[in-house]
UniProtKB/TrEMBL annotation:
<feature type="transmembrane region" description="Helical">
    <location>
        <begin position="169"/>
        <end position="187"/>
    </location>
</feature>
<feature type="transmembrane region" description="Helical">
    <location>
        <begin position="144"/>
        <end position="163"/>
    </location>
</feature>
<feature type="transmembrane region" description="Helical">
    <location>
        <begin position="85"/>
        <end position="104"/>
    </location>
</feature>
<keyword id="KW-0812">Transmembrane</keyword>
<feature type="transmembrane region" description="Helical">
    <location>
        <begin position="59"/>
        <end position="79"/>
    </location>
</feature>
<protein>
    <recommendedName>
        <fullName>DUF5317 domain-containing protein</fullName>
    </recommendedName>
</protein>
<keyword id="KW-1133">Transmembrane helix</keyword>
<feature type="transmembrane region" description="Helical">
    <location>
        <begin position="34"/>
        <end position="52"/>
    </location>
</feature>
<dbReference type="InterPro" id="IPR035168">
    <property type="entry name" value="DUF5317"/>
</dbReference>
<dbReference type="Pfam" id="PF17248">
    <property type="entry name" value="DUF5317"/>
</dbReference>
<keyword id="KW-0472">Membrane</keyword>
Amino acid sequence: MLYLLVILLAIILGVLFGTFKRKKLDISYIRLEKVWLAFLAFGIQTITRIFSMKGVSFLVKYSWLTQGVVFVLLFVALWYNRKHLGLWIIALGASLNALVMMVNGGRMPVSLEKLVKVDMPEFIELIKSGADNKHVVMSEATKLNFLADIFYLPGFLGKGAYVLSIGDYIVAAGLFIFVFGMVSGSYKKHEEVKI
């Protein structure tokens, strides 16, 4: 939900900014490489999550491996597109999420206290049962809890959204910058980040 709202906001503000600057909407100059790697990463994550919820327990046991593959594919795709500033920020947020997940066996610790506030009892039961290959109940045994899913969106924004991490917010900021830059035409002038 957060990422969808960020994309919509970036599109609306980008179009308004582009109109104000008298720039015609044109994203044909944006060249993204190896995007299929990101789609493959999300596909693997989605499929393994569905099967783990259906009771395929070895996916939970080896979630560090599947999540590791997902992050490697995602980072390779981001590296190929490193000329876009927003993608650097997305990579930073994804790195924080990858770090906390990998030190916790491939699963993101999540605060049950905060999860109760977004009213998702089915998700709470799923995590408590250990059937979710992406999340684990946050406790004193989990590591780097300050980077875990400990934040929630209040009000209607939180409905249907999981609890979020610092990395998720950084990814959202990068996503906003990337989409806004594409839609507003800002990348025409500042298309590359110098390394």
